[in-house]
Amino acid sequence: MGDAEDRITRLEEAVTHQLKTIEELSDQLAEQWKIVEQTRVKLERLTERFLSLEEESREAVPVTRPPHF
């Protein structure tokens, strides 16, 4: 019966290690998701700002005749 008990102990240790690994990976995934969301929000703000500045710059350029006319 000692072999069966050793085998069960090893299996329990393996399961415990796997559960800990899964928990750590889950924590890392949650942290990465936060970073992705923050980056997405920043990108949206920068895109809006860029489009706004681009629109303003088009309005600011006066249309004039070239000097040779």
List keywords for this structure.
mainly alpha, rod-shaped
User: How large is the count of helical segments?
Assistant: 1
Radius of gyration: 30 Å
- The helical percent reads over 70%
User: Per DSSP, what share of the residues sits in E-state strands of 2 or more residues?
Assistant: under 5%
Largest sheet: none
Shape: rod-shaped
Q: Decide which structural class fits the backbone.
A: mainly alpha
Question: Would you kindly provide a written description of the structure presented here, covering whatever features stand out?
Answer:
- The protein is mainly α.
- 86% of the residues lie in helices and 0% in strands.
- It contains one helix and no strands.
- The longest helix has 59 residues, at 2-60.
- The radius of gyration is 30 Å and the shape is rod-shaped.
- It starts with a helix and ends in a 9-residue tail after the last helix.
- The relative contact order is 0.05.
